[in-house]
Amino acid sequence: MRKQLTLFLALILSMGILGGCGKKDSAPSENGSEEKKTDYRFEQCGLAYSLPKEWLERKNVNLIPVTFVKPDGEIYAKIEYDFTPDENMDELNNPDSKIPVDELMIPVFTLLVVKEENIESQGVKDELAHFKNCEELPKQEKFHFYYLTEYVGSTPRFSKESTKTFETLNSELPMLQKTIETFVPDEASVQTQIEDSKAYLNFMSTTLTGDPITSTVFYDYDLTVVNFWASYCYPDINELATLESFYKQLKEKYPNINFVQVVIDLPGEKAENTVKQAYEEVGVTFTTIIPDQAMASWIIDNLKGLPTTFFVDNKGRPLDTKIEGVKDLDYYWETTATALEKAKAEN
């Protein structure tokens, strides 16, 4: 069983959504008072803080930030910093590792943002239960803020030296706490970014062979041809031989164009066995993506039938050009040429 590095992939995507967040100096507040000087200010979360400079200079310290904003979730926003020592980095980056991620690293601290109506929700209670210490920070209008430390949700696999390093980080948490600032989150910008993101085909998943894959795969090509299919289409609706020929010719003639297939009813043992059988019959070599929740939602909103082929530019935006139904190789080439011209013109 391959280990999906969900935490790292989540970080990549969440940083994209939190495009307005990052490192910047604080500005004077509206009432004229000077805000704290902080290194990191997340407008969408309503949080600002500075990490102790000792953390950035100390050896054997790898801090992995995990952030998200879910306007309709029980937890509105979360910022967490996980610690892992050098000794665990190889395992974290090994997709074949059988060691659970939560045994390779542990949260140093977590900041939660919760709306008033959700403070008694089960999701919030479950999150708070993972920490021994929970301190409520200054409330801002309908938003509650929590500072969580001393994680008790798992026991990490650290050496004695790394355990001491982690204990040192914990002893320096008061320096961090003094810098934390809360303010009303910018909900409008979050909603705007969510609406804008609907124009992109974003996902964070794995391939049929178990390798991690995200929508950043689109950035490496001028155009990506994305074919949507399902195991239940086989054998009646099956153009795999045509698609494999198309893919091989693309690699030879147009290395700037990629081809991938999404099988919409994966994962699932029955579907996976069917797909593997169909692939073996024609010797499929292209990449197959298992849809995650984000892609599944996009599929529901954009697919009318199967198979359907979309063309995605190097920013991850599907073009208006698409192919519906089974077509021959010439049709794929003609439509791809049209889509490539359109992608170049729009970029």
Summarize this, please?
This protein has 347 residues and is α+β, with helices and mostly antiparallel strands. Helices cover 32% and strands 27% of the residues. Residues 1-34 have low confidence and may be disordered.
Can you walk through the features of this model?
This protein has 347 residues and is of the alpha+beta class. Strands 11-10-14-13-12-15-16 form a seven-stranded mixed beta sheet. A five-stranded antiparallel beta sheet has the order 4-5-6-8-7. Strands 1-2-3-9 form a four-stranded antiparallel beta sheet, with no helix packed on it. β12, α8 and β13 form a beta-alpha-beta unit. The longest helix is centred in the last third of the chain and has 18 residues.
Key words describing this protein structure:
single chain, 347 residues, alpha+beta, seven-stranded mixed beta sheet, 27% strand
Topology diagram in text:
Blueprint: H1 6-17, E1 22-23, E2 40-42, E3 47-49, H2 53-57, E4 62-69, E5 77-84, H3 89-92, E6 106-115, H4 122-128, E7 131-140, E8 143-151, H5 160-171, H6 173-177, E9 181-182, H7 187-197, E10 204-207, E11 212-214, E12 223-229, H8 240-253, E13 257-263, H9 269-282, E14 287-290, H10 293-302, E15 308-313, E16 318-324, H11 329-346
Parallel strand pairs: 12-13, 13-14
Antiparallel strand pairs: 1-2, 2-3, 3-9, 4-5, 5-6, 6-8, 7-8, 10-11, 10-14, 12-15, 15-16
